[in-house]
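Amino acids appear as letters; backbone shape is given numerically. Here is one record.
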Amino acid sequence: MAVWPRFRPRLLDSLDGYNGSRLGTDVVAGFTVGVLALPLAMAFAIASGMSPASGIVTAIIAGLVISVFGGSRVQIGGPTGAFIVIVYGIVVQYGVANLLICTMMAGVMLLAMGIARLGTWIRFIPISVISGFTKGIAVLILLSQVKEFFGLRIEALPAEFFAKVEALWAGLPTTNPQSVALGIACVLLVALWPKRWRIVPGPVVALFAGTGAAVALGLDVETIGSRFGGIPSGLPPFALPTVSFAELGPLFAPAFTIALLGAIESLLSATVADNMIDDRHDPNQELIAQGLANLAAPLFGGFCATGAIARTSTNVRMGGRSPIAGIVHALTLLLVVLVAAPAARYIPLTVLSAILLVVAWNMGEWGEFRHLRRYRFNYQAVLLATFVLTVVFDLTVAVQAGLVLAAIFFITRMSGLTQVRELETPGTDGAATDQATPAGTGAARPVRVYELFGSLFFGAANKIEPLLALAEPTHPAKVIVLDMQKLINIDTTGLDMLSTLHRKLLRNDKRLFIVGANAQPRSLFERSGFAATLGADNLCDDVATALLRAGAGTSSATAPMGD
C-alpha cells in the first residue's frame, strides 16, 4: 500500500487556481480535438478490422480515463494508427472477442508497469528502434488503405505482408474510378488545408466535404452504412468478455505487444507535449492511466488505446493546458454519437481511407531516410533492420531484434572505449612525467603500474587478460598496481577477472594493489568479499601510497599498452 500515496493524477494539480478563463480555453481546445478525433477514431477502427462504432467508443472511454487519471496535463488518448497492424492481425487470427481480452491483459500489464515505476525504463529504448518501427507501421498503414482507397472488391485482406501484397495485386482490376477520384480529392484537401484555418482541422473538412460530394453526386462508393449498417446512437451496454483460461496462453504475446507499444507511444506523446508547454509528465502515473483505459474500453466494446501524438499536439496548439480539455474531447465525441450517429451511415470509406493515408504519410517522417548517411553505421543498421522487420514480420520481432542489435553495437563501442595503459616507469608521487622510458627498457621492473580507463564489464573484461602473463612465476614482475581512478564501472565479469589475477599473483608470491577505486567498483568489492580477500593494505587511495607499500621509488611516464 506504500505505492498508493504516490498515485496522483495531474488533474488534481491542474485544478489548483483553475478559473473561468482557463476553462473557456480548455473547452474550445477539447471541442476542436473531439471533432478531429471523430473521423480518426472511425478510420483507425475500420482499418483494424473493427466497426467504426468501436473506434468512437474507444476514443470516448479511453480518452476520458486517460485524461482523468493520467500523468500529463495535455495528453489526449484514444485509438491510434500504430495499433492498426497489431489489432488487425489479432482479429484475423483470434477474433474480436479475444482482441478484447488481449486489450484487457495489456491493461493489466501497463497498470503493473506503472505501479512498479517502470515508466522511466521505456526511455531506454533507442530512438533508432522507435524511428524504425514507426516508419514500418506507417508503411503497413499505407498498404492497408489501398483496398478502401481504390474501392477494390476483396473479401478480406490477409494479415501477413506478402499475402496482403499478393491479394491487393490480384484485386487491382476491380478498381473503382469514382472511389479513386474522391480519395484523391480528400487527400489533397487534408494535405493542403491552410494552417491559418486550423481551428477547423483538415480531416474534419475532408469528412464533411467528401461525404457531401458523394451524396450530392450519387457516387457509387462503399459507405459506413453499406458495410456496417451505421453507428448506434449511444454507448454499447457494459459487458464482461467471456474468458477461457485455456486460451489465455496464446494471447499473452499479442497482449504484451499491445502493452509495449502503448507504453512507448503514450510516453513519447507525453514527452512531445512536455516540450511544447515546458512541462514534465509523470511517466509512471501515465502508465497507470493507460492501464486503466485499456481495462475499461473493452467493457463497452472498445479496443486498445494510447496517447495520440497528433491529437495531443492539436490540443496544445488550440490552448489546452489541463486534463479538462481531454475530458471535453471525450464528451464531445459522446455528444456526436447521441445526436448525429444516424448521419454517419453516409460517410464513404474512401474518405476515411484518404484521411488515414495522410496520417500515415506524416507519421513516417520519410525525410530521415535522406539524412541517414549523416549518422554512424550503428544507427543506420538498427533503424533499417527494425524498419524492415516491422514491415515483413511484426512489431514484436522488430523491437526485439532492434534492441539486441543496439545492445551489441553498444557493447562493442564501450569495449573499444575501455583501455588499460601502463605507467612504464612508476614513481613515488603517483603522477606521470614527461620523461618516458625508451622502448625496450625496463622489462625486468619488479613493480608494474597500469591505469584502467572506462568500464570493466563483460564486453571489456578481456582487457585484463594480458596482465595474467605477469603473474607467471617466470615473469620478473613482483607487484601489480591497478590505478582505477578513471574506471567508472565494473561488473561481476570484470570482478572475476580481477579475482583471477589476484589468485594467480598470490599463488606465485606476488602482490596486487588496487588504487583509487570509485564508489561503484568499491561497493562491488566490499559486497562480493573481494576487498576482504585482497586486504585493506592493498586498497590504496593513490599510486604513491601503493608504491611506498610495495617498496618502489622511480619516476613515471605513460604509454599505451594497447587495446
Remarks:
- Residues 426-442, 552-563 have pLDDT under 50 and may be disordered.
- DSSP finds 23 helices and eight strands in the chain.
